[in-house]
Amino acid sequence: MADLLIELFSEEIPARMQKRASEDLKSLVTNGLVEAGLTYASAGAFATPRRLALSVEGLLDASPTTVEERKGPRVDAPEKALEGFLRGAGVTKDDLEIRDEKKGQVYFAKITKPGRPAAEIVAEVLEATVRNFPWPKSMRWGAGSLKWVRPLHSIVCLMTREDGAEVVPLDIDGITSGNTVWGHRFMSAGSFKVTSFDDYAAKLKQNFVVLDPQERADHIWHDATNQAFAQGLEVVEDKGLLSEVAGLVEWPVVLMGEIGEDFLGLPPEVLQTSMREHQKFFSVKNPKTGRIEKFVTVANRETADNGATILAGNQKVLSARLSDAKFFWENDVRTVEREGMEAMSAPLANVTFHNKLGSEAERIARIAALAADIAPIVGAEAGEAELTAKVAKADLSSEMVYEFPELQGVMGRYYAKKAGLSDAVADACRDHYSPLGPSDDVPTEPVSVAVALADKLDKLTGFWAIDEKPTGSKDPFALRRAALGVIRLLITNDVRMSLDRFIDAQLLAHKIAAADENDGIIDTLKEILDEIAEHGVFGAAFDAISDKLTETQKDEVKTVAGSVPDTSDDLLSFFHDRLKVFLRDEGIRHDVIDACLAMPGNDDITLLVKRARALQAMLDTEDGTNLIQGFKRANNILTQAEEKDGVEYSFGPDVKFAETDEEKALFAALDTASEEIKPAMKAEDFTAAMSAMADMRPSVDAFFEAVQINTDSDIVRRNRLNLLGRIREICLSVADLTRIES
Amino acid sequence: MSLSPSENVEKPRSFQEIILRLQSYWASRGCAILQPYDMEVGAGTFHPATTLRSLGSNAWAAAYVQPSRRPTDGRYGENPNRLQHYYQYQVLIKPSPPDLQDLYLGSLKAIGIDTDLHDIRFVEDDWESPTLGAWGLGWEVWCDGMEVSQFTYFQQVGGHDCKPVSGELTYGLERLAMYVLGIDHVMNMPFNDPQSPIPLTYGDVFKQTEEEYSRHNFDVANTEKLLSDFVNAEKECHAILDQAQIDPKTGKRIVMAHPAYDQCIKASHIFNLLDARGVISVTERQAYIGRVRALAKACADAFVQTTAGGWTPDTAPEVESA
């Protein structure tokens, strides 16, 4: 048994690549070893800014000898076949064994592959790993052709056994392996030799390098929170920044510094973003006031002055940065205070949103119209929603958002307040982008909801109108996220809205926007757009005004906008697909959703979800599962009978032909169920409807247990089939249970 | 622990002393100290000693100051850090030596940055110049959180793979000097020794020109003339490169890569001026950048057909016939 230590020492590896690189090193080397027959007990990989390291423990000293048996030609086969076989197997005729098989005597060869020493395999595997390493970006340097993330300087490749350590010889384009390790770039006295992984890690630490990134991150977090706590402050958590900063230092030293008094009036988001993005500082908050008052920076070394020079330098750089931010903030505030948010929006007329979908200003106008349209449905005031939509993206042209794009919305809220707009409008400026991720908060204020829905629906219909839909893993405009956003907005706020109407209308709005301005057809299209609100969908709206149109006009409308219904269906089914993904996480099966999709009103997401949740809940009960079986049985019998008889058994059965108690009981149960289900469905109380349906179960079961459908009496038989028809009718009025898989 | 202060390098006292120390440091490390290129450029990289000399197989080591112009950064001399005209210090060594990082750190010590007291970091920053059709990998170098240099291993220039690879160092001289000298506003920085009989600040030298050029660049530069100058430079560049390789007068093979490249530099600067005048829309911008890049590529193609670009009659016989 041996332990293996590998270190690849280079110039500074980008922080964001280190974790992945150490994992890749581990898997490439260990997979290579195992493939060559060298098994091992355990392995661990590490990264610092200047090195990737791998420790493999309990490695075999050599790969085992393997014996492979290969079947050859028959003994009476032509000589040539035998020659070929011997050549392929690398054996002589004397090595062959003859065995009796069904078809006669056959040659067999035993091919022995001797094991190889571990060092030989390690050298090969490491060289292949270095040469084919999957860096996201790699480079050449000097006059060589080897590629690495930055120039590779040295390789440690060492096998340690009880009797000592031995360098595995390796030469990759002039970089030879050894056991020499360099410590911290500035703090270490120089290089040193190592004998094992433990020796390596310990000596690195003596030479001011903490090998394990997790240990560095823990140290940083521990020190930072302690220093903040000592002053009654707290560090704002930022896991991404922590792991990045841990990848920028080998010897982390935490220093806490002051933010100049001048800058404490900036919005906290601005302070935090500027410090994180430009300086990689953590923000330190006063928990009493919520204000960010200090920062934490992480240096890569200790100094004789305990970091005083470093901290002073960092503070100075921060001041210069924040002066810029303050300058932007003050300019932006001056603009909106004097001239309002509209003035800030004005330049958006010159900003292209997408070359086929026009400028940001045109987009905003479409969103505003749609938001006004949606407003009454979500309980917002149309005028306010329209106004909000018009100013909600004004901050895109602010200096601050130009500098920090991630502050879009957040700044909009501040500027709207400074412009004297209401809190609801200001909040909507920030919140209309939400929800972004699947766990992001969903806005609930009516104005925010109206604008958020309009924003996303305009985007989706726009990209559908120009046929730039997501394909496979490609979704450059984040349309899946937008659709999920719409779904969550509707469900969370219990919004009842017919998506068809708004999709059709907005698709048409995009067609109008794309049409030639001088085209006479635009007025007609606008007329249809007005009618959609009345008639629900494009087709009906078109029919409503088609009497007034000449044949030529009709043709023109069809040319420009004829694709709207198909595109609309396609987008709706995209919503349905997203909904399935979303509900799957809730534990709702896809067939349950299919059963609900088959019902009318499936463009009303909230209704659809209510139905699906109720159906899933029913299926989760014993009564529910059994009822489905009963329904299926009834449906199968009916389908067969209807096929055979060529009639549909949907005519009301009559209780007077009922012969058995079970039959009579079923009549009564069906009456009760339908009396409960009808009003429940009308009230969209699916839970009540489903439970009334599930209540039929004992009677349905008892009926099937006791009653034979087929009897001599044709009347009785038909009556029974019609009775099954009622079960089917009642069940299908709730959801299309034929879609449920057993 | 090696916390003892290193050899105590005396702090420089002026902007020019920092430049002089860099010059003498890189001279002592074997670089040819060149003078600035005599044309308006946006960055030291544009100097043919970098762009063109990074191409081909010949070894090269040069360092120089390059006055650089970025018309959009003009702030009438009022902003503490931003200037439309500033200096870059540029080092280019091909092939990049294995100890380039150490050489670079030595240059920081030479200008008075005590690496035992400061926190020097190499932070990922990939360099790309769409106008030069060039890219490389490297870092921005941080000193106590401030970017003091760009450090790049050129991988491609003018569409050509760099073989061997050049190591490029770029120092933003004003910013670096302000940091070393502890100055908050660039205009207050001593240009020569403050103890001189006639002490001059950076502002004494450049405050007025910053004002003049800011006004000119933003509001006065004649855009119609600039637009036609751009087209003319572009045409001239191609016309130069279209000439036969054999000079009919001398009978020698003379590929005019440098004169053509001058026109590329000109076009690039005119584009920057047009940009500052705000007459280039977002979509046009890309098109203009593409046009400058096409010139840079054509010049790079020509340069590798020259002796300095590694061309020899033996290595490229097929070109003779072309």
What share of residues of chain B is helical? 25-40%
CATH topology of the domain at 2-62 and 117-206 in chain A: Alpha-Beta Plaits
End-to-end C-alpha gap of chain A: 55 Å
Name of the CATH superfamily of the largest domain in chain B: Bira Bifunctional Protein, Domain 2
Poorly predicted runs of chain A: none
Structural class computed from helices and strand pairing of chain A: alpha+beta
The end-to-end span of chain B amounts to 64 Å
Q: Tell me the CATH topology of the largest domain in chain B.
A: BirA Bifunctional Protein, domain 2
Order of helices and strands of chain B: HEHEEHEEEEEEHHHHHH
The count of β-strands of chain A is 18
- In angstroms, what is the radius of gyration of chain A? 37 Å
CATH class of the domain at 2-62 and 117-206 in chain A: Alpha Beta
Structure commentary:
The complex is a heterodimer of chains A (742) and B (322). Among the domains of chain A are: 2-62 and 117-206, 2-Layer Sandwich (Alpha-Beta Plaits), CATH 3.30.70; 66-113, no CATH class; 213-302, no CATH class; 622-739, Isoleucyl-tRNA Synthetase, Domain 1, CATH 1.10.730. In chain A, strands 1, 2, 3, 7, 8, 9 and 10 form a seven-stranded mixed beta sheet that branches. In chain A, strands 13-15-16-14 form a four-stranded antiparallel beta sheet, with helices on both faces. In chain A, strands 4-6-5 form a three-stranded antiparallel beta sheet, with helices on one face. With 742 residues, chain A is α+β, with helices and mostly antiparallel strands. Chain A has 27 helices and 18 strands. In chain A, helix 5 packs across helix 6 (239-246). Chain B has 322 residues and is α+β, with helices and mostly antiparallel strands. Chain B folds into two domains: 15-216, Bira Bifunctional Protein, Domain 2 (BirA Bifunctional Protein, domain 2, 2-Layer Sandwich), CATH 3.30.930; 222-313, Methane Monooxygenase Hydroxylase, Chain G, domain 1, CATH 1.20.58.180. Helix content of chain B is 38%, strand content 19%. Chain B has nine helices and nine strands. In chain B, strands 1, 2, 3, 4, 5, 6, 7, 8 and 9 form a nine-stranded mixed beta sheet that branches. In chain B, helix 7 (257-276) runs antiparallel to helix 8. The longest helix of chain B has 22 residues, at 282-303. The radius of gyration of chain B is 21 Å and the shape is globular. The N and C termini of chain B lie far apart (64 Å).
